[in-house]
Design a protein that fits this description.
It is built from 14 helices and 14 strands. It is an alpha/beta fold. The two termini are about 30 Å apart.
Length: about 375
């Protein structure tokens, strides 16, 4: 079962409305897709990032895997990681490795005739999700419609909104939006906030104390995830859980964050950290330190692997990526009731609609 040279493509999809968080604004999202084949099967993996990820994957990584065994993913993963020594592992290189690694796991499961969650070994049949969006560009009516759709329409009992607007310069509006969100979702649903590192340390503590009055139990990146000391100080000062980790591109990043005591829940993104291979290692590292893991974005990438780890908290059902993955793939999952069921079909259960999405292709 020798690997053929992977095919690589990139697609840019406009957002359905202007979007921003505390530190960034965007009007489109680019997805880079890797397709790798062996025998008569093809595995599909993807990441979100600039089209340059696809260029790196095509030119640097794809020739390396050709002829290697489709069953020996650790060997392939190790070869990919060693090859980027001079290019630098974080960023574009790691995203490219991630897309290819995800494709390899999908391929292996298909070659063996198994759902990916069964190949990895399922811990649970259903995986909890939380609705994620609530961008700072949304007016109150738009925010209410999105939250209402998740909580009262799809019965997802956990939701997250963005705060920290304008690098923390609009705290009054941030607090207003948290209050408005609680009014929409009611007293029973869990409410989370994400500042994307917009606040200073003491500002984050003040905001955290106030949003706790609205029952906020999850404060994501209250300060920059590069400020491990600041995360720990905020964590120690607040009753809500502090979460971070989405920018982890390798295992040492997660080790530093954990040993600094910076988080209550570690976020891991398989489309950035090195694919499912490195995701499983990060989850084991977190478990060894008594921490739960929550996946970041790309929900259909994480569905199967989330079913396998014992220390899972939940999967992020992120608005942008849900839109794209629903559009691009047959077999997309249904979060109604607050969980998804990822143990159906071969591999990750998704099939790329190549012709239907051709209009978004950029490379």
């Amino acid at each position: 079962m020798k690997l053929q040279r992977p095919a690589v493509s990139a697609y840019t999809v406009p957002t359905d409305a202007p979007e921003a968080d505390g530190t960034l604004a965007w009007e489109s999202t680019t997805m880079v897709i890797a397709e790798v084949s062996a025998d008569d099967a093809t595995g599909t993996g993807w990441t979100y990032g600039p089209a340059a990820v696809g260029d790196f994957l095509r030119e640097h990584l794809a020739p390396l895997v050709e002829g290697m065994s489709a069953l020996d993913i650790p060997a392939v993963h190790d070869a990919l990681c060693r090859s980027v020594r001079n290019a630098g592992r974080p960023g574009i290189a790691s995203c490219a490795i991630s897309a290819l690694d995800i494709a390899l796991w999908d391929l292996k499961a298909r070659l063996l005739g198994l759902p990916l969650a069964r190949l990895l070994g399922a811990r649970r049949e259903r995986v909890p999700v939380y609705g994620s969006g609530g961008f700072t560009t949304y007016h109150d009516t738009h925010l209410a419609a999105q939250l209402n759709g998740w909580v009262h329409g799809q019965h997802i009992p956990r939701v997250k909104i963005k705060i920290g607007e304008g690098w923390g310069r609009e705290v009054t509006r941030d607090l207003h939006r948290v209050h408005a969100a609680r009014q929409v979702i009611g007293p029973e649903a869990e409410l989370y906030v994400d500042a994307n590192g917009a606040y200073t340390r003491k500002q984050a503590v003040r905001v955290g104390h106030t949003v706790a009055e609205h029952g906020v139990g999850w404060f994501e990146e209250p300060v920059s995830s590069d400020d491990l000391t600041g995360l720990r100080l905020v964590r120690d000062a607040l009753v809500c859980d502090v979460a971070a980790g989405e920018y982890g591109y390798d295992l040492p990043y997660f080790a530093r964050m954990i040993t600094a005591g910076a988080v209550d829940c570690l976020q891991v993104d398989a489309t950035r950290c090195g694919g499912l291979t490195e995701f499983l290692r990060a989850a084991a590292l977190a478990q060894a330190h008594g921490l739960e893991v929550s996946t970041h974005c790309a929900p259909h990438v994480h569905a199967a692997v989330a079913a396998t780890i014992p220390n899972l908290r939940h999967v992020e059902w992120f608005h942008d990526h849900v839109r794209i993955e629903d559009l691009f793939f047959d077999g997309a999952l249904d979060p109604t009731g607050g969980t998804i069921h990822p143990t159906q079909g071969l591999g990750h259960g998704l099939t790329l609609r190549t012709e239907e999405v051709a209009e978004y292709r950029v490379t």
